[in-house]
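Bug report

Summary: structure tokens for Thioredoxin family protein differ between web form and batch submission.
Environment: batch mode, default settings.
Steps: 1) Submit the sequence below via batch. 2) Compare with the web form result.

Sequence submitted:
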Amino acid sequence: MKILLSITLIAIAMNVSAQEVNKKIHDQARNKDVLINVCTREGITSFPEFKEMYDPLYAAYVPDAATMIELKKLVKKEKIKIVFGTWCGDSKVNVPNFFKVLDNLQFKEKNVEIIAVDGAKKAENGIIDGLNIQRVPTFIVFDKKGKELGRIVEHPKTTLEGDLLAIYQKKS
């Protein structure tokens, strides 16, 4: 597990050039420390303000079994980008639940990119430019060629797994 995590961190670090992974800044607008830019799952789950809700919500979330069966049939080599704020209440609730869905799907962690934004919903070095992020969290599903298939913005219309299934069914 540690070797896999090390390889993942190296790959992420190489992808974002010299950017610092799990970078913490003091957000003047919110007057608190927040994560910014590319993060690892370990980075967000160990960030104190985020962790306090992450662990119990992740443990408690039970994705709908019938929806998950249908979803598993459709998941291939897509990529998912999660744009969230460590300061954001909706992110604190929906990111742990979304990871529970991904874990149940055995979705490859290397196909998930996690980007933290500040209180103004901005990241550094243009890493979210062109994504049209209005609210967080935003979960964006891309096909293997990088074309956006759909997104879940702020909170699901039905459930996270239900909305994800709707995105995948649109693709088929």
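Above is the batch result. After comparison, the two runs are identical; trailing whitespace caused the diff. The chain has six helices and six strands. The helical segments are 2-15, 41-45, 48-60, 65-74, 89-105, 160-171.
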